[in-house]
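Hi F.,

I've been meaning to write this up properly since the lab meeting, where we talked about keeping a consistent format for the predictions we share between groups. The idea is simple: the sequence comes first, exactly as it goes in, then the structure tokens exactly as they come out, then a line or two of notes. No screenshots and no reformatting. I'm using this chain as the first example so we have something concrete to point to.
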Amino acid sequence: MQNVTLGKNVTLGDYVELGLQPKHQAGKLTIGDQAIIRSHTVIYAGNTIGNNFQTGHAVLIRENNTIGNNVSIGSHTVVERESLIEDDVRIHSHCFIPEFVIIKKRAWLGPRLTILNILHPPCPKFEECAKHVIINENAKIGGNVTILPRVTIGKNSLIGAGSVVTKDIPPDSVAQGNPARVTKKIRDLECPLGYYQTPYEWEETQ
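Output, unedited:
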């Protein structure tokens, strides 16, 4: 693995493949300290990955992504090329993250999230057309959500399970449905089990 640099105390599961080259040659794969790369994961060359990274089983990460510290990517998730995933992001299992996506700090992505990045596939202007879906800091995306091209999810927003997001969602909002519509603000949520006065109040102390 001449084109792979691993940090300290990296754990590699069975049948892991690191540093694969795409059709067009990519640079080195760098993975930081304390990573756990579980079995059947494939990570291409050209990725820069921070400390405390972990994957589930059978994760595929294509080339030239930048991935921060404390990022977790669940089993059978695909991350295509040239995306940015910042610190403390949690991506659950069976998600699809296409090219050129920006995911900001502490975003939480539920299982089977699908992000689409091109308006009219297959488009000859794909490299220009597909930029960018943006999921902003501390946003939460429920399971089985679909996010359409060129959509921005606002900071701290929550997208309900099964929603189809066709347009931008403002910060601090709750959106749900198909197409997803803003139904309330985060501050208006209630904890039905009574553990907290309002959901996410614990984040105010972080």
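Notes:
Residues 175 and 181 are 5 Å apart (CA to CA).
Residues 4-205 form a domain with the UDP N-Acetylglucosamine Acyltransferase; domain 1 fold (CATH 2.160.10.10).

If this format works for you, I'll send the rest the same way.

G.
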